[in-house]
Design goal:
heterodimer; A: 296 residues; 4 strands; disordered C terminus; B: 14 helices; globular
């Protein structure tokens, strides 16, 4: 392959990765913005999405139903994580660093729960027939499953945009994100907003999980946690609580990781994303696309 | 059975050394260093490449290969970890505080892990290094070797423990606690918060390197699977269960978490569950344990004791003010 083809191919991969990272990062960014809980178990929500699809697949091969099953499992898991574990920490005013460690504990628990049930071996996700056919779109070549993933990501982001901009819930969510106390005294049902936000973050991460498993047709219990820092990179570079910033950052992170993989050892793919995250935190901890603010 | 117990106690002793180093960072100073286990790994590798002979045709690739004796290997491991800790700490502590420091150190741990397991010329990549002879084995022989090594580890643990206790009761230790309790107030009282935090960070990293060096000299081998985020979680669980800031608590926590929970459950017969399930169950228990402690008793079983010197200091400053 000549160097232009290499570059274009990697950019093509980059957009697929960007779509997956965007789904997970938008959810994480929203959830941290509204609840102020750093979630180290977000990777497991991705994993639960993949395994949810696997469970539904035992019943039916319909790819839409599998996807919805994955999203549902991840969504319910996210909701339950908040409702039964994290909420009690928040109510007691636990320091944020405890929440960070508690979610790390949750991550470990959930990941190994899957390892306990399904084993650590690779599980196969059946893909729809013809999904590995290559299609030429402009200068890029994508497989059917790649196109499906990017399409699903666009639909999900568009749906989220409508929900956030045009519904009462979206407005309430922005209010809570901005100032939870003020929102509470203004009569906004803050708890319901927070619960729903966790659910949405889980649904989006679940879709990302099905997509990750879809790109390779397989999954292991660490499939999501391998993505955690890449997703954090996009969410933090984009600015926490800014879903559209996370979207832009996800495209950047996706392109940079895949293009770097074409020139460096591909094992350094996530290393590059994590390095971006470290630099972003050290240089601009509030995100690249945000107004500078004093932080602690 | 006795042999198994000795083996477990060696691991508990070595991990307690690492945990005390972590306690100086987190318990004393409030710095959550999630790359502690990375420094154990680096310390282990450095001790190995110093002590191992040149790679030759062993099939492994690694730097150095000096064939120097055990005590020098351990010292070099500690110095290397201190220097790397100083570099990481100097940059990170200058820019971020508690919560983002945890994320930055976690990321650095991930980066180092990926580079070490991918870049083969450094420490032979993912397959890791092996073939290190137990220290002094040509003098004392290999019969009952573990008993002797346990003795060595306990002596070193005792030294580290006494050092940490002296540190805790010293004016420096009080300054660290002041920084932990109120960063801004400590600064307002003229303390160089950055330097205090950096010192605690570097001491912790050097002790982690010591633990790593002791570990590889016992196992004779190390690969990237030996220092993952799972090990970090074990360290966190032990310190939080025992009691952050209390060195006795840290010992107790490590004994309970590593000695009872981890090694104890490995005695479950395989007809009940496979080894794979056993490992998963251990990890699940660790995760739940960590959440339960943080939720119901975040200070741990043995809470940090309010020192007499602290009361006296308050009283004397109060009387001076009056």
């Amino acid at each position: 392959m000549d160097s232009l083809t290499v570059l274009l191919t990697s950019i093509g991969f980059g957009f697929v990765t960007a779509a997956i990272v965007a789904l997970a990062a938008i959810g994480l960014s929203l959830q941290i913005g509204v609840t102020n809980v750093p979630n180290f178990a977000h990777g497991e929500l991705i994993t639960f999405g993949a395994y949810g699809a696997l469970i539904v697949q035992f019943v039916t091969d319909n790819v839409l139903l599998d996807t919805l099953g994955g999203m549902a499992l991840a969504g319910v898991t996210a909701w339950a994580m908040n409702r039964f574990v994290l909420q009690s920490f928040v109510k007691r005013g636990a320091p944020r660093i405890y929440l960070l460690i508690a979610t790390a504990g949750l991550s470990f628990f959930l990941q190994n729960l899957l390892a306990f049930i399904f084993g650590e071996r690779t599980q196969v996700l059946q893909l729809p027939a013809g999904s590995s056919t290559g299609y030429h779109v402009g200068p890029f070549v994508w497989t059917g499953i790649d196109l499906l993933i990017m399409g699903a990501a666009i639909v999900a982001v568009a749906a989220l945009y409508v929900v956030l901009q045009f519904t009462k819930f979206g407005k309430a969510q922005r209010a809570v994100s901005n100032n939870p106390e003020l929102a509470r005294v203004s009569g906004i049902p803050v708890n319901r907003v927070i619960n729903l936000t966790w659910l949405i973050a889980g649904l989006l991460a679940g879709l990302a999980g099905v997509a990750v498993a879809g790109t390779t047709g397989s999954m292991v219990p660490t499939i999501g946690s391998d993505f955690l820092l890449v997703v954090f990179a996009a969410a933090i570079v984009g600015g926490l609580g800014r879903p559209y910033g996370a979207l832009v950052a996800a495209v950047i992170v996706g392109l940079v990781t895949e293009v770097s993989a074409a020139y460096l050892n591909s094992a350094y793919k996530t290393t590059v994303a994590v390095a971006i995250l470290v630099l972003a935190i050290l240089i601009r901890p509030n995100g690249i696309f945000t107004v500078s603010r004093e932080i602690t | 059975m006795i042999d198994f117990l000795v083996l477990v106690l060696i691991l508990v002793a070595i991990n307690s050394i690492v945990a005390i180093g972590f306690n100086i960072q987190w318990g004393y100073t409030g710095l959550l260093n999630l790359s502690s286990i990375t420094f154990v790994g680096i310390g282990g590798y450095v001790a190995m490449v110093i002590a191992l002979p040149p790679p030759g045709n062993s099939g492994m690739q690694y730097i150095l290969g000096l064939g120097w004796p055990f005590p020098i290997a351990v010292l070099v491991a500690m110095v290397v970890c201190a220097v790397l800790g100083a570099i990481l700490g100097a940059i990170a502590l200058n820019r971020v505080r508690a919560y983002y420091l945890a994320i930055v150190t976690f990321c650095v741990a991930e980066i180092v892990h990926q580079v070490v397991s991918t870049y083969i010329p450094l420490f032979d990549g993912n397959s890791g290094l092996y073939g290190l002879n137990p220290p002094f084995s040509n003098v004392v022989g290999l019969a009952n070797y573990n008993d002797l090594y346990l003795g060595l580890c306990v002596v070193i643990l005792a030294i580290v423990f006494l050092f940490a206790e002296r540190l805790r009761k010293s004016p420096f230790g009080r300054a660290l606690r002041a920084v932990r309790e109120d960063h801004d107030a400590a600064q307002a009282f003229g303390r160089d918060v950055w330097l205090l935090q950096l010192k605690a960070f570097v001491i912790g990293c050097a002790i982690a390197g010591l633990g790593g060096a002791l570990l590889v000299n016992f196992t004779g081998a190390l690969n990237p699977d030996g220092w993952t985020s799972g090990e970090t979680l074990l360290l966190l669980a032990a310190v939080f269960l025992g009691g952050s800031g209390n060195n006795w608590g840290v010992l107790l926590g490590m004994l309970l978490v590593l000695g009872v929970l981890q090694e104890g459950t490995s005695l479950i017969p395989t007809w009940i569950m496979s080894n794979e399930q056993q490992a998963a169950l251990q990890a699940m228990t660790l995760g739940v344990l960590l959440i339960v402690i943080l939720r119901f008793r975040p200070m741990g079983i043995l809470a940090e004791t309010a020192d007499r010197d602290r009361v006296e200091a308050t009283r004397s400053s109060a009387s001076r003010a009056a």
